[in-house]
User: Fold this.
Amino acid sequence: MPDETPEPPLRTCPHCGLEGRTRYERCPHCQRSYYTASRSTLQRRWLIAGVIGVLILAGAGVVGLLALSDRDDREARQKAEQTRRVEALKARLKKIQAPHHGAAPRLKPAADATDDQQLAARRALVVAVEDRITADAQAREKTGELDGPIKDTVCGPILKSKEAIPDDRVLTKPIGRYDCVAIKKHVTTADNTKVAELGHAFVAALNFKTYTYTWCRNTPAQGEAGKALVFVRLERACLAATGAALGTGYVAEDGDIGETETSR
Assistant:
């Protein structure tokens, strides 16, 4: 019976390139495995892997640059928006704090008026200014600028001291400066003793020579999340200020600061 054993397959070695018939793993010429890649194949694979790696790095670099550019654009937009909001707040505060003027010549005492008559006239001018501020605050309440209800207004010495004397009580003072509150609520103790007023701040400057006056709303610095964004200094007319600007106000010159009982 003839031998039917099949002839070994013809193989080409990936390493030496020679052909041979064998059933074994290794090339009969160079003895290297048919199943391991040749050096050129490995080099091609490494080259391809290197190219892919470079492309990946390049892609990552492009993505990084795009991310940085996007972040810069976003920060620029945020900065521009912040600037716009600050400018809008400044414009709003300037409008809110704009000086208002008035006069009450009918209250002016005669040239030969006694001290008591002058004191009464000066006090009447303070009351007239309080009434004007009340009317102004109530008008602002109607527009939604202020919350209410606004009941009345009280003006006291600009000097924060329990011993401070209102400027209208000092006949040598031609200008009276006042810290005023448009009152929403009187704060009282258990025995109904008034200890403070809750409301909106105003300031006023009264000219006791001409019986003219100026008042302004006095707003705190505006901000967000507890951080002040903008402050607008009151105009000089609001306090009849003549000194240089300093901090949030003006330098007080002689006679600008109110008197106290102990300083008289």
